[in-house]
Amino acid sequence: RQEQYHKLRDVPAVTKDGVAIDLHMNAGLLVDLEHVAETGAISVGLFRTELQFMLAPRFPKMSEQETLYRAALDSVGGKPITFRTLDIGSDKILPYMTQVEEENPALGWRAIRIGLDRPGLLRSQLRGLLRAGGGREMRIMFPMIATLEEYEAAKALVERELELLKLHHRQAPSDLKLGIMVEVPSMLWQLDEICRSVDFLSVGSNDLIQYLFAIDRDNKRVATRFDVLSAPVLRALKLIADKARAADKPLTLCGEIGGRPLEAMVLLALGFRGLSMSAASIGPVKAMVLATHIGEAKDFVENLLENVTGGHSLRDKLRAFAEAN
Ligand code: PEP
Ligand code: MG
After folding, report:
1. What is the pTM of this model?
2. According to the lineage, what is the superkingdom (predicted)?
């Protein structure tokens, strides 16, 4: 099996009806990046920068962050990396940071909320990123954005750091793109506005689904209660794909479902053309892409969504369609 997938490495990910799909890889540590070449991923669609912070004995200095980001960029042979700024809090704890007692950590002080409340932390990370990206392409993505204002505030910090770079006669990135994770449901109803402001969007389906159904993503007792392949989730994802396309903004999805072939097929049917996933998923998902006719899948899924007749999961119907094709 692995060998079969390995053979697909240099085969372009194009559907039966000729639609090119961008397959990106998720990573969090330098060692993960070795897989970029062997999987044939076109870029690193999600680099979870918090892993470096979680493994460190204390808050990494700006210069240490810069070194890591530069090493990351150097190790992927010119392919782009989308760096996500610190996504700590909730299940991602930094032992050296004072713990805040919270009743509901998943709904609490985390990710960009910490970054904006402690701008010193976020600015030091942005400085490390911008320095490492000097003279080359740099993509920075903010996690858990819930309002347009949060994005504007984060962007303002980037602009300040860019000015400082200039002041210190350091090279800025030759091409800087800023984007957000779409993973808080409030974003679903601000897509027109946010699409005007950002350079790209990436759906964090792990959190988006957790918050849509109000189920803790790590709680086994409730985790199997709802199916991703159901009308509420698919309609939400379709809305994002439609809005991003209308605004002509690059869109990817970087949650776990992008790496599962059946779910990924449905994502293509909904209009997604870029998926970012773990290294091990790229082969199986590429095999699915090669076997999929997007036009037919789109008709099937849209018809299914228009004719939902109760029941929750659409999985059996979608699987039957995938197997028949
Ligand atoms: C997500 O929420 O889907 C995501 C990709 O980010 P993380 O799993 O790191 O929260
Ligand atoms: Mg997330």
Report:
1. 0.97
2. Bacteria
